[in-house]
Design brief:
Number of strands: 16
CATH class of the largest domain: Alpha Beta
Strand content: 25-35%
Helix content: 25-40%
CATH architecture of the largest domain: Alpha-Beta Complex
Oligomer: single chain
Number of helices: 10
CATH topology of the largest domain: Quinone Oxidoreductase, Chain A, domain 1
Radius of gyration: 20 Å
Largest sheet: 8 strands, mixed
Bound molecules: NADP nicotinamide-adenine-dinucleotide phosphate
């Protein structure tokens, strides 16, 4: 049995209708059926959808596991619970929620059906655009810094690429856990934003001398480095770690040459991190901790720009061809 208000209604969604990588392969459809709800699922009426680089990798056909077409893009979203399946126990109709890692139905749609363990309460203190900015960025930052990086209070952390969605989440998280944080960005606005989120020092990764400045003082090496562009920075990261330090690979857009010898003496580690490889236990733990972070106030997503549903393709372009990140890109799905 399913309880709720709009089970038979029709809705609007963005959908890929032609092969990935083709021009104009996404269109907005109206009057489509609302997704069917299974027992342990929650139907969410979405107001906002978070844009992530992975949406663009899929759209361009350059992603390892491409979904079948027709495909509704968007992995993160926020809105109101509209109906609950009979086996779903955590939510009731009308609850404010955010959701992440949709598999079958994406969030560029007025409704999505989600397994309830991918749906989380959204406090009144955050609006729906901020709710849609939580999922992948905050979950990834938590997993990278605390589960993979094993960072602890007092550690020195470099967030290499701190002005984007994951980077800002990582800065907020690391400060909330009592770490010293150095962040990088590529523009003056980005640097200012990273500082405003609590970073203790900032460097411009487009300034040709920033790496020399970072390497100059051996006292200021890092326990943990969160790396958003490993293909550019990994070789340098190996020289920036303290003995036993960890560099976590979050973002990578190609191959890189490194000197593994840099890791031998200090016995440092380079560790891969993929949110989609999380175990159910990791997923639940991260969900609980991020939900606590909303209540305690350290989860404060910064929204850079909001697009209309018909402009979602522009958002997919902008997230990859950014001239300087300043937080999150979000699509408004409905008023
Ligand atoms: P985003 O919002 O577009 O941010 C990209 C960040 O990379 C910005 O801070 C940007 O800084 C920075 N950057 C640009 N050039 C850089 C350089 N030379 N060195 C260091 N940083 C540089 O993207 P996001 O959502 O935060 O995601 C960041 C990366 O992580 C992407 O590659 C994404 O695909 C990946 N990711 C991976 C996972 C996972 O599970 N492993 C999960 C989420 C995201 P400026 O724009 O200020 O130059």
């Amino acid at each position: 049995m399913i309880s709720g208000s709009r089970m038979s209604s029709r809705a609007m969604r963005a959908v890929y209708v032609r092969k990935f990588g083709a021009v104009d392969q996404m269109k907005v459809e109206e009057n489509v059926a609302v997704p069917k709800l299974e027992d342990k699922q929650v139907l969410v009426k979405l107001y906002a959808s978070g844009v992530n680089p992975v949406d663009t990798y899929i759209r361009s056909g350059q992603y390892g596991k491409l979904p079948t077409i027709p495909y509704v893009p968007g992995k993160d979203g926020a809105g109101l619970v509209d109906a609950v399946g009979s086996g779903a126990t955590r939510f009731k109709v009308g609850d404010r929620v955010f959701c992440s890692q949709t598999v079958r139905y994406g969030t560029l749609a007025e409704f999505t059906a989600m397994d309830e363990d991918h749906v989380f309460p959204l406090a009144d203190s955050l609006d729906f655009a901020q709710g849609a900015a939580i999922g992948i960025p905050y979950f990834t930052a938590y997993k990278a810094l605390l589960l993979k990086g094993r960072a602890k209070k007092g550690d020195r952390v470099l967030v290499h690429g701190a002005s984007g969605s994951v980077g800002l989440a990582a800065v907020q998280l690391a400060k909330a856990y009592g770490m010293t944080v150095v962040g990088t960005a590529g523009t003056a606005e980005g640097l200012e934003l990273v500082s405003s989120q609590g970073a203790d020092a900032v460097y411009n990764h487009r300034d040709s001398s920033y790496m020399d400045k970072l390497k100059k003082n051996p006292e200021t090496k890092f326990d943990v480095i969160l790396e958003m562009l490993s293909n550019v920075n990994l070789g340098h990261d190996l020289e920036l770690m303290k003995p036993k330090g960890r560099t976590i690979i979050i973002g990578c857009r190609g191959p890189v040459t490194i000197n593994p010898r840099d890791m031998m003496g200090p016995e440092t580690e380079v560790i891969g991190c993929a949110l989609f490889s999380s175990t159910p236990e990791e997923w639940n733990l991260i969900g609980e901790r991020v939900a606590e972070g909303i209540s305690s106030g350290w989860v404060k997503p910064v929204i850079n720009k909001i697009y209309d549903l018909h402009k979602a393709g522009e958002a997919h372009h902008d997230v990859i061809h950014s001239t300087g990140a300043k937080g999150k890109l979000v699509v408004r799905v409905q008023e």
